[in-house]
Amino acid sequence: MLFNVNLIDDFIGLFYPKICISCNTVLLKHEFYLCTQCKYFLPRAKFHEDIEHSLIKKTLYGRVPVFGSAAYYLFSKKSGVQNILHHIKYKQGKLLAKEIGIWMSEELKNADWIKDVEILIPIPLHPKKQIERGYNQSEEYCKGIEATLNIPTKNILKKNIYTLTQTRKKRYERWENVKDNFEIDQNISGIKHLVLVDDVMTTGATFEAAYNALISAGYNGKVSIITIAVATYLV
Ligand SMILES: [Zn+2]
After folding, report:
1. Residues 121 and 203 in one domain
2. What is the whole-number distance in angstroms between the Cα of residue 4 and the centre of ligand 1?
3. Model-wide pTM > 0.70
4. How far apart are the first and last CA of the chain?
5. What is the CATH number of the domain that holds 194?
6. Number of domains comprising the chain
7. Cα-to-centroid distance, 231 and ligand 1 (Å)
8. Inter-CA distances, 165 with 127, 128, 161, 169, 170, Å
9. How far is the CA of 228 from the centre of ligand 1 (A)?
10. Distance from the CA of 209 to the center of ligand 1, in angstroms?
11. How far is the CA of 145 from the centre of ligand 1 (A)?
12. Residue 24: which domain range?
């Protein structure tokens, strides 16, 4: 017997309705991941349009000379955006991360600063975490941007792995100090403009550490930053 795919989908939907990742309302047939209301009304960053008033630039002032910057969402605690970020990280939200990359690049394609970007560099996860999760959400986000804007994603930033002695140090603050320590494993001296990409920016410490790794590797081109969301509660 032949089954109509839509019928099967409707049948499954009766028991497991697809719900909006942000607000939990049941999705309509044409809606994916987010309901129409969340898709259009969640707080958006739009820094790519106003390069001088970017929250990313402001947060990293004096630490990273940010050229261009963009984030899709503004993030505050207990918001719909937090639900989206949680889904991307912990609920196999690989496809959603890529999808938001596509949405982001639809906006980015009109920004002047993106035009000479040569590579996208995702902030890596700890290798153990990457194995557990099966993907790096920042890399998936890059792939969405790559698919639309044709800027290649390069995994050239590596997380430094610590020795047993260091992992034995139990104090949390110690871990906080060293967890974001990166190195570049390729020659990047010929590159003139690159973008560091992460899922969310709060204090900017991760980008600062990534930038320091670029400098240590002899990089002297422009650095831009793209995230899925940027936290608003520090300002
Ligand atoms: Zn919703």
Report:
1. yes
2. 28
3. yes
4. 60
5. 3.40.50.2020
6. 2
7. 20
8. 18, 18, 12, 7, 10
9. 17
10. 35
11. 24
12. 1-41
Decide if pLDDT at 164 tops 50.
no
Backbone angles phi, psi at 188, to 5 degrees: -120, 15
Same domain, 127 and 206: yes
pLDDT in tens, 217-235: 999 999 999 999 999 875 4
Give the pLDDT confidence of 102-113 residue by residue, as tens digits: 999 999 999 999
Same domain, 30 and 48: no
Torsion angle (degrees, nearest 10) of CA 195, 90, 182, 81: 40
C-alpha dihedral, 72 to 143 to 67 to 44, nearest 10°: 0
- C-alpha of residue 192 to centroid of ligand 1, in Å: 40
